[in-house]
């Protein structure tokens, strides 16, 4: 892979300390750093727009399931995205918009936009709005430890990352990245004190053609909230959210898609 010279220098310097604790003989410190960058790159689409259908299923132990469907548009090169909720009927027309570093929530019931945050939960689920946007592992974090591990049958590098900026959702993260293709398979989010907050699993990916390239996009993501559990039949069951992605299209969308008037217009359909 080709990386911008300055970006590569930044990534490698972030791993200067971590490489001392890395004992794998097959990969160099440079390759370890580039693998994490590859995992970050796989979550973004800077050379095209991305549109897909999302099904978000929330499961609360003892309370049943709820489902939300949405269409998501992303233009990562301009840090813009739009989420339009299409079901259930009571939430149809609601939406989110990120533009100019601001996130707005739109409710057609009162035709108002209210300020939101990347840390806010999406429609009361265990997913943050930031889970639908590019991840910034190499720029926002530095590695404290790197290990070669097995995740089921997958050969992975396990990165223990600590935030180097306050502008992150979680100050500590553990990331399982497959060595052969640089895809994130599991992620654990921790508080500053080291308490595990969430666990995200990405069991499989789908290949989608677009813009003359092949992209790897998750088929589904399973997010477990490690703080919200209920004891059922002498066993703790945690809340979880399953996000399924389909109908992915990678091509430029009209500029109007990433504006407030677009959400207002679509909410009435």
Q: Any overview of this molecule?
A:
The strands form 2 sheets. This protein has a 13-stranded antiparallel beta sheet, with helices on both faces. The protein is globular. It is 13% helix and 48% strand. Helix 1 (5-14) packs across helix 2 (29-41). By secondary structure, it is mainly beta.
Q: Order of strands across the biggest sheet?
A: 6-5-4-3-2-1-15-14-11-10-9-8-7
Strand content: over 45%
What is the residue-mean pLDDT, rounded to a whole number?
A: 88
Q: Please give the alpha-carbon distance between the first and last residues.
A: 44 Å
Approximately how much helix is present in the residues? 10-25%
Topology:
Elements (H helix, E strand, L loop, with lengths): L4 H10 L14 H13 L8 E11 L3 E12 L4 E8 L7 E5 L2 E6 L4 E5 L20 H4 E11 L2 E10 L8 E7 L5 E7 L5 E6 L3 E6 L2 E6 L1 E13 L2 E16 L9 H7 L3
Antiparallel strand pairs: 1-2, 1-15, 2-3, 3-4, 4-5, 5-6, 7-8, 8-9, 9-10, 10-11, 11-14, 12-13, 14-15
Search tags:
13% helix, mainly beta, 269 residues, globular, two-stranded antiparallel ribbon, disordered N terminus
Short recap of the structure:
The chain is built from 4 helices and 15 strands. It has 269 residues and is mainly beta.
